[in-house]
Amino acid sequence: MDKDECTKRTKKRVVARAYQKDINKTPSQKHWNSRDISLAKVESPYNFRDPVYTRYCSYMPASIKVNFNRDFEMPGTEVITYGWGHKNYFRQRADLNDHNARFANYASTVVIDKELCKKMLVGHSDLQLNVEYFLICTAGEGSLDESGKMSQGPATPRAFNGSTPGIYQSVWSRDNLNNRKTNHTDFTDMRRHGPCQNDHGGPLVTWIGGREYIIGVATGFQVNKHMQCVAPYLYTSTFSNGEFIYCVLRNTRRSSQCDIQSEQKGYEIVEEDISWNITSNIARSAHLEDMTPVVDNTNVKKKTNISEPWKNDNYFLNLRARNHTDDKT
């Protein structure tokens, strides 16, 4: 972000976050990706008409709507996914090179059937419940371009471009951001249709009535014996977490549904403030990249979730995958 003039001049500090904490856990359920989504609040609202965008950016940004309708995450739905992470390979522990992309990349892909997704996740029976209730699965090449136009004709649901699902090493959920160096290693540029390392939290987008909607947030993927990121690619569904999203965004408008006891729904909403440690020298230079964010746990606010009045409403928000290192309960 700090190497690009556009993001360097328009980025904002995150000052609060909200996430879901499970109340009722089952032994057969993988906890880290059951509700793998959070909402972040920045220090001030974005002004998408700011002239800085026309001067330093290649585009004018716009808000994106959030999907709360199951119909738009059904098998066969054409989607686009975005990210700045590795294009193909999951970095091994001994590799200290930085394989992240310099610019955002996108991939066109297709939502696949949940039962097919479960079969492709061979050796991961603990993910079955999460796939069923919280996740969207994608695989194969899609037909949308980055503007939402069909580029290859009508789509049909497919996985691995028609090949047979195989057995893979693992489903990875955590970014490995430590020990970065700039030494370069060349890899064969293979086409990929989903997220890889450090793409977690990236949006899964489709077009509804000619407008972009976010329907999911990148959560995980599989890694084969060659350390390649492969399908099925997993995304946390905005529809499946619509209660959480709605309740947090209605923070200033009380709703009876938001007061339902968390025990009845199986989770509670936790809101945390984030402070920034700023030295006097840094404060004078006002360089955000030199500041360290600190989660303030002394003023944690907890809410309960709601029922389902959110399905026909449209809301705007920034989504980011939950910090898994904080998920130890």
Could you characterize what this model shows?
This protein has helices at 5-10, 52-56, 114-120, 128-133, 242-249, 262-265, 280-285; strands spanning 14-22, 38-42, 65-66, 78-83, 105-111, 135-139, 170-172, 203-208, 211-223, 229-237, 267-277, 292-304, 319-320. A hairpin with a 2-residue loop joins strand 8 (203-208) and strand 9 (211-223). The chain has seven helices and 13 strands. It is 13% helix and 28% strand. Residues 154-191, 280-286 and 304-329 have low confidence and may be disordered. It has 329 residues and is α+β, with helices and mostly antiparallel strands. The protein folds into two domains: 1-61 and 241-329, no CATH class; 63-240, Thrombin, subunit H (Beta Barrel), CATH 2.40.10. It is globular, with a radius of gyration of 20 Å. The strands form two sheets. It has a six-stranded antiparallel barrel with strand order 4-5-6-10-9-8. It has a five-stranded antiparallel β-sheet with strand order 12-11-1-2-13.
Can you describe this structure in just a few lines?
The chain is an alpha+beta fold.
Residue share in helices?
10-25%
What count of domains describes the coordinates? 2
Please state the average pLDDT score: 73
Strand content: 25-35%
CA(first)-CA(last) distance: 32 Å
Largest sheet: 6 strands, antiparallel, barrel
| Low-pLDDT residue spans | 154-191, 280-286, 304-329
Q: Describe the global form.
A: globular
CATH fold title of the largest domain: Thrombin, subunit H
CATH architecture of the largest domain, by name, is: Beta Barrel
Q: Which strand order does the major sheet show?
A: 4-5-6-10-9-8
SSE pattern: HEEHEEEHHEEEEEHHEHEE
CATH H-level superfamily title of the largest domain: Trypsin-like serine proteases
CATH class of the largest domain: Mainly Beta
- Using only C-alpha atoms, the radius of gyration works out to 20 Å
Number of strands: 13
| Oligomeric state of this protein | single chain
Structural class: alpha+beta
Specify the number of helices.
Answer: 7
